């Protein structure tokens, strides 16, 4: 069976890697996202407090109703009874009205906070460098963007309001308990510290398990995202069972952690229920003795029991809120881990303005390494504006790394890289990258229409400009052949288009952007001869008047380049035209002749 390196799961992480601290101040930071909705939030809290206050009146009226019914046996005056019932109905109606208002207002706050937090997190992720994304799985990032943000939604709205509400209800119920029967109150309140202590102890354990569950599910989702994103590779290697097993193992781990969480929740609920209702049973027994002794009326006993139930309910509610806050601490910790990430491509506080660049590119003793592995060593050359430079060399020579330094996907670790005589680190990233166009070997199209993908190079372009770019890229003919023309949906990653069609759409996108510096990273290596000819013609149009770096798999396609740089082991070992390098008899000629013989053999010209 096909084997691959195992992916890291939470359990497989380096035990020496520190866990992020679950700092309660994270919640204050989270609640800052509710500031734009503070008016709605305050109104929702007020509605909650009014509803809670009205609920405190209900037990008093209910007790009066009991006394009016049972202590006046034989009386025909139903006025007090009628008035009490009407007052109860009014209290219920107002409580329901304010309850509905608080639910609507706070749901608006929660939805707004979640939308803003997701926007902020996604925007921040887009600002991070490629280095960050090489160390993090897309599935894990997506999980934090979706499920983790949803976890904190209740805390940012409903839970906080309920905290106020339950606190008011608890304080009010305790005060009214004492006023109704001081001796019964002491018996009831004795159990509250035990309930709170249980909630704190079990809540801490629940928080840890909840965070572990989030991590485990995120790891499984990351595996699933990788498998689905590369489903063709999975199916070509008949590795469906391998991926099913991998994802199934992740779900099994998540299931086991979920069982631990459920056991803790069940233990907490059972313990709280026993303590609450056990206390009520004792209160009912003792209160019944007081009623029999004439020290308490039946109505007051019922009132006291309802207040006691409210105390138990509010303590249980506060416990649930406490657990929500514990889970939110774990989720917000994962969110703020990302928000606190800083790009390893720092920008100047006072960037040098860069309008329309000339396109001159200078490598001045540039060195670069991934971690401890040197990739480029002391690379120096100057490319005048408008020159076409081909980069060739064996696999791993550093060609792609070199061109990725120009738009600052990575920063040099030694020397300097300049555009128009200025270090690229002195420009704003957005200004620099606006001057650079990239057409890679594996073209990424987004799942919208062809027109939307071309317009990605310049969102404010007119339909006429989009079509002009497509014509220049030799793409208009196949686009208009589709029934829906430019509105044709390309599918995820452009799967509905052929390789040559995707490349021409990408070239049209680059043409519309109109960059001064162009990078072609093996843009025709994966195409058949017919598609390559069409794409090459489009590339010739694209390269006109631009500083162009061409990485070519087929050396025959770069014979006419004005300049060829030959890289080997991270160094520029040859520099010149095709004819000069062939005459020099160095690495370039060896590579060219080797490839030429392979092409001859492929055509059957060699025996």
Structural overview:
The protein is about 60% helix and about 10% strand. It has about 600 residues and is of the alpha/beta class. Helix 3 (about 80-125) runs antiparallel to helix 6 (about 155-180) and helix 8 packs parallel to helix 11 (about 300-340). The radius of gyration is 35 Å and the shape is elongated. Residues about 1-20 have low confidence and may be disordered.
Q: What is the annotated CATH architecture of the largest domain? A: Up-down Bundle
- The name of the CATH superfamily of the largest domain reads ABC transporter type 1, transmembrane domain
Largest sheet: 6 strands, mixed
* Number of distinct beta strands: 10
Mean pLDDT: 79
CATH T-level fold name of the largest domain: ABC transporter transmembrane region fold
Radius of gyration over alpha carbons?
35 Å
pLDDT < 50 stretches: 1-21
Strand content: 5-15%
The first-to-last residue Cα distance is 38 Å
The helix fraction, in percent, is: 55-70%
* Spatial strand arrangement across the major sheet: 6-7-8-3-9-10
Secondary-structure element string: HHHHHHHHHHHEEEHEEHEHHHHEHEEEHH
How are the elements arranged and paired?
Elements: H1 25-31, H2 38-70, H3 79-127, H4 130-134, H5 138-151, H6 155-180, H7 182-189, H8 192-229, H9 231-236, H10 240-293, H11 298-339, E1 361-370, E2 373-383, E3 388-392, H12 399-404, E4 414-419, E5 422-423, H13 429-434, E6 436-439, H14 450-455, H15 463-472, H16 476-481, H17 499-513, E7 517-521, H18 529-543, E8 547-551, E9 563-568, E10 571-576, H19 578-584, H20 587-603
Parallel strand pairs: 3-8, 3-9, 6-7, 7-8
Antiparallel strand pairs: 1-2, 1-4, 4-5, 9-10
């Amino acid at each position: 069976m096909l084997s691959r390196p195992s992916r890291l799961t939470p359990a497989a992480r380096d035990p020496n890697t520190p866990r992020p601290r679950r700092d309660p101040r994270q919640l204050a930071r989270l609640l800052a996202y509710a500031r734009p909705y503070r008016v709605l939030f305050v109104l929702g809290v007020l509605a909650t407090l009014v509803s809670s206050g009205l609920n405190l009146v209900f037990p008093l009226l209910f007790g009066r109703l009991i006394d009016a019914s049972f202590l006046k046996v034989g009386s025909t005056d139903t006025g007090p009874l009628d008035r009490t019932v009407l007052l109860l109905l009014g209290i219920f109606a107002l409580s329901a009205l304010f309850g509905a208002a608080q639910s609507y207002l706070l749901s608006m706050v929660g939805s707004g906070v979640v939308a803003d937090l997701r926007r902020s997190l996604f925007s921040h992720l887009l600002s991070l460098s490629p280095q960050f994304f090489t160390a993090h799985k897309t599935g894990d990032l997506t999980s934090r963007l979706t499920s983790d943000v949803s976890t904190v939604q209740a805390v940012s709205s409903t839970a906080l309001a309920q905290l106020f509400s339950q606190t008011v209800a608890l304080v009010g119920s305790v005060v009214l308990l004492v006023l109704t029967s001081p001796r019964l109150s002491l018996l009831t309140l004795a159990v509250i510290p035990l309930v709170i202590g249980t909630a704190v102890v079990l809540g801490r354990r629940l928080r840890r398990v909840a965070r572990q569950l989030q991590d485990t599910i995120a790891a499984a989702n990351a595996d699933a995202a990788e498998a689905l994103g590369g489903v063709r590779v999975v199916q070509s290697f008949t590795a469906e069972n391998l991926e099913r097993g991998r994802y199934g193992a992740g779900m099994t781990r998540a299931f086991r952690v979920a069982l631990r969480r459920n056991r803790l929740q069940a233990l907490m609920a059972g313990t709280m229920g026993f303590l609450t209702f056990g206390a009520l049973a004792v209160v009912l027994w003792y209160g019944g003795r007081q009623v029999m002794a004439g020290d308490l009326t039946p109505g007051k006993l019922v009132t006291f029991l309802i207040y006691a139930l409210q105390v138990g309910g509010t303590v249980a509610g506060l416990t649930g809120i406490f657990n929500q806050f514990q889970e939110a601490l774990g989720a917000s910790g994962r969110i703020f881990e990302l928000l606190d990430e800083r790009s390893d491509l720092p920008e100047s506080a006072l960037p040098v303005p860069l309008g329309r660049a000339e396109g001159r590119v200078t490598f001045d003793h540039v060195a670069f390494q991934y971690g401890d592995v040197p990739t480029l060593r002391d690379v120096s050359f100057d490319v005048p504006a408008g020159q076409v430079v081909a980069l060739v060399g064996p696999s791993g020579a550093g060609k792609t790394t070199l061109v990725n330094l120009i738009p600052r996907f990575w920063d040099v670790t030694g020397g300097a890289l300049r555009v128009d005589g200025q270090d690229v680190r002195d420009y704003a990233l957005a200004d620099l990258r606006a001057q650079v166009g990239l057409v890679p070997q594996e073209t990424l199209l987004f799942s919208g229409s062809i027109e939307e993908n071309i317009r990605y190079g310049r969102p404010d372009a007119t339909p006429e400009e989009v079509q002009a770019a497509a014509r220049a890229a030799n793409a208009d003919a196949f686009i208009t052949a589709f029934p829906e023309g430019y509105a044709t949906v390309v599918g995820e990653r452009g799967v509905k288009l052929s390789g040559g069609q995707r490349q021409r759409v990408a070239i049209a996108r680059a043409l519309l952007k109109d960059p001064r510096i162009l990078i072609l990273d093996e843009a025709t290596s994966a195409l058949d001869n017919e598609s390559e000819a069409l794409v090459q013609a489009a590339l010739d149009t694209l390269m006109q008047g631009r500083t162009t770096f061409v990485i070519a798999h087929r050396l025959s396609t770069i014979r006419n380049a004005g300049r060829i740089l030959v890289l080997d082991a991270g160094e520029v070992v040859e520099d010149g035209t095709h004819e000069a390098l062939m005459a020099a008899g160095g690495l370039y000629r060896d590579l060219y002749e080797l490839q030429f013989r392979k092409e001859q053999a492929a055509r059957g010209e060699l025996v």
